[in-house]
Write a structure and sequence with these properties.
Oligomer: single chain
Radius of gyration: 19 Å
Length: 166
Amino acid sequence: RYWRDWNSDVCSSDLIALCTLFENLVRLLFREFDLKGKPDDKNVKLFEQAKSEVADQLARQISEKGDGYRRLHNVVRSAHLFSMEQMLQAVVNHFGLVWQGDMENIYKTWSRARHPLVHDKLRADTSEDKLKESVIDESQIAGAINILLLKLFGYSGYLRHSALED
């Protein structure tokens, strides 16, 4: 039992690290390739204006009404116009990769694996099947990181999604 609990925690922390690397790589590529659209895009301007106005209104409430408003203010300030899925789709399109049924599956794996781990799901009693699923998830997310980096470096040959499955 001790080994399984230790192994579960190691797998979880490895997977959290890979999910974080993947997310930050996508955000970096999205930003560096300027895939958000034209700076004069009406939707971008309207979003930024609304975000600023709401953040200002919340900031005025912080001293009066307390910490809940500070937390909400921080959420609004950190809001992004594009979701992770939209950013990944833009990066995938930029590199000429296939989204539907391919990189879309990577996004679903990332989303399914990341959220329970990051948002404090208990992992002490992880079943053997869940541990195996976690290892496959790690392989797929690591493969996606490799694919994005290889495309960034100009590679155009065979790309492997998962060393454990392909």
